[in-house]
């Protein structure tokens, strides 16, 4: 029998469905992807959408989907015929996930976490195993999978102090959810300790899957060709968040007319690189804010050149706006330095691993708790610098791009940092295959004769013809 807490939770999520529908309608105005296949979120699917024996991977948003791509590649190297069912919660995640699909794979929205919707999802797709990426632990989903004997694991798992505090406040529902997971594989030892405190059984610390991601070589090649034509060094404010762009633009505007605080005229002359001699670029974290940021750039007295209007140009003194998806390798390849979004507005910072993989040094603000260990490792390895505020970030940037030897040393350090921490993909794929084999063995099944799917020699689920 289900606990009272889980029944109360299920009743609450059921009552919240009208609010979710209203939220999706509003989000779809700015991001049409939220208006696509809405009924999938409530367990209603096209007739053609069915099957059994899926390796189901849930990647809620863009970052998790990119990590899922690394894991999918590793699984396919082990079992070329594996069939993937991808679920997402955001439009950017779904758009990115569509690029990962093979001819026999499928993609639907994450089921809303009510008993009825989760039951419809599991009845329709009958996954052989479920993998939740990074932080997504849903109480109804974990309970339903445990009841059906479907192993559900949390991969590339992370948990910061703020989220742990929230989990402890809601321990009546979060602790059983973490405890229902068949396995948890953490990014770091610190994450492992926090996850155990939340009630999870951590079976391994495998590192961050994002280190295994390979930057788009076509984009990097294009960036290299464009750089040869540009008269100025390029600095990108990558994955900027609301409030940070204004901070950035107002600091630039101030420094255009006066040297940084604490700089003597001799020091300013030594740098020999005023603000206007750098090509600045902003790439907002959320695509629904592209127009808002373009308007902000103009309101701060700068011209704006949008990526959506064509390739970057070295002419003029405009701020470039990277208003496209899936081109971060191009932006990092163009840039001499990257400022880390989310780290200046005390939001915990965005992922710096992709910048490092592209050989782009990073300057980060004081707030990096979302990627605490990666940030510290990058600092220790010389691939990144930490500053206290935006003015320090820009002045350090000016000093760095005026010092080619130091900048090149950071480029080499970034590449070394990126390559030194790879391997999480293979470790996680092996653990997934072992979990499937272990689960079936404990259920007394012969994997080769399982009713819903055959199993490869390596123990991976592969759907059998009906």
From TrEMBL:
Q: Name one GO molecular function term.
A: Kdo transferase activity
Query: In which compartments does the protein localize?
Result: Cell membrane
InterPro entries annotated for this entry? Glycos_transf_N, Glycos_transf_N_sf, Kdotransferase
Keywords for the protein's UniProt record, in alphabetical order: Cell membrane, Glycosyltransferase, Lipopolysaccharide biosynthesis, Membrane, Transferase
Known EC number(s)? 2.4.99.12
Tell me if Membrane is a UniProt keyword of this record: yes
Gene3D superfamilies in the record, alphabetically? Answer: 3-Deoxy-D-manno-octulosonic-acid transferase, N-terminal domain, Glycogen Phosphorylase B
Please tell me whether the keyword Secreted is annotated for this protein: no
Main localisation: membrane
Q: Which Pfam families match?
A: Glycos_transf_N (PF04413)
Using the UniProt annotation, give all residue ranges assigned to the region (Disordered). Answer: 443-466
Q: Which residues form the 3-deoxy-D-manno-octulosonic-acid transferase N-terminal domain?
A: 38-213
What catalytic activity does the UniProt entry give for this protein?
A: lipid IVA (E. coli) + CMP-3-deoxy-beta-D-manno-octulosonate = alpha-Kdo-(2->6)-lipid IVA (E. coli) + CMP + H(+)
Biochemical pathway: Bacterial outer membrane biogenesis; LPS core biosynthesis
Q: Which PANTHER family match?
A: 3-DEOXY-D-MANNO-OCTULOSONIC ACID TRANSFERASE, MITOCHONDRIAL-RELATED, 3-DEOXY-MANNO-OCTULOSONATE CYTIDYLYLTRANSFERASE
Biological function: Involved in lipopolysaccharide (LPS) biosynthesis. Catalyzes the transfer of 3-deoxy-D-manno-octulosonate (Kdo) residue(s) from CMP-Kdo to lipid IV(A), the tetraacyldisaccharide-1,4'-bisphosphate precursor of lipid A.
Which family, according to the similarity comment? Belongs to the glycosyltransferase group 1 family.
* The protein's name: 3-deoxy-D-manno-octulosonic acid transferase
Q: Which organism is it from?
A: Variovorax dokdonensis
């Amino acid at each position: 029998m289900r606990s009272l807490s889980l029944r109360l939770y299920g009743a609450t999520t059921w009552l919240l469905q009208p609010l979710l529908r209203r939220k999706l309608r509003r989000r779809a105005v700015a991001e049409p992807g939220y208006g696509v296949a809405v009924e999938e979120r409530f367990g209603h699917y096209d007739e053609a959408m069915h099957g059994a024996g899926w390796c189901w991977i849930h990647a809620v948003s863009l970052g998790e989907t990119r990590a899922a791509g690394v894991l999918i590649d590793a699984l396919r190297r082990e079992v070329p015929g594996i069939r993937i069912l991808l679920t997402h919660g955001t439009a950017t995640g779904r758009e990115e996930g569509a690029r990962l699909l093979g001819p026999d794979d499928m993609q639907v929205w994450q089921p809303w976490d009510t008993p009825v919707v989760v039951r419809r999802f599991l009845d329709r797709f009958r996954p052989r195993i479920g993998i939740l990426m990074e932080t997504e632990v849903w109480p109804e989903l974990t309970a339903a999978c445990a009841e059906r004997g479907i192993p559900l694991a949390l991969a590339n798992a992370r948990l910061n102090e703020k989220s742990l505090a929230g989990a402890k406040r809601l321990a009546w529902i979060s602790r059983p959810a973490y405890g229902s997971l068949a396995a948890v594989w953490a990014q770091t030892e610190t994450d492992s300790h926090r996850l155990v405190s939340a009630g999870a059984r951590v079976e391994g610390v495998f590192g961050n899957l994002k280190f295994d991601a390979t930057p788009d070589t076509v984009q990097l090649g294009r960036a290299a060709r464009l750089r040869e034509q540009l008269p100025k060094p390029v600095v990108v404010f990558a994955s900027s968040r609301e409030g940070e762009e204004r901070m950035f633009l107002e600091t630039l505007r101030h420094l255009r007319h006066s040297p940084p605080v604490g700089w003597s005229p001799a020091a300013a002359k030594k740098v020999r690189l005023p603000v206007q001699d750098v090509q600045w670029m902003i790439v907002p974290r959320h695509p629904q804010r592209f127009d808002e940021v373009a308007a902000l750039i103009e309101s701060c007295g700068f011209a704006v050149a949008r990526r959506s209007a064509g390739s970057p140009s070295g002419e003029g003194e405009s701020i470039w706006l990277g208003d496209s998806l899936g081109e971060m390798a191009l932006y990092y390849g163009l840039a001499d330095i990257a400022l880390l979004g989310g780290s200046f507005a005390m939001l915990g910072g965005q992922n710096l691993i992709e910048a490092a993989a592209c050989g782009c040094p990073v300057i980060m603000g004081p707030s990096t708790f979302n990627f605490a260990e990666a940030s510290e490792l990058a600092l220790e390895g010389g691939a990144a610098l930490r500053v206290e505020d935006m003015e320090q970030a820009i002045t350090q940037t000016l000093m760095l791009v005026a010092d080619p030897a130091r900048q090149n040393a950071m480029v080499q350090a970034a590449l070394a940092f990126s390559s030194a921490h790879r391997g999480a993909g293979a470790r996680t794929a092996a653990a997934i295959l072992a979990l499937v084999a272990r689960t079936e063995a404990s259920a007394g099944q012969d994997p080769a004769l399982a009713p819903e799917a055959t199993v490869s020699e390596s123990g991976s689920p592969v759907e059998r013809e009906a």
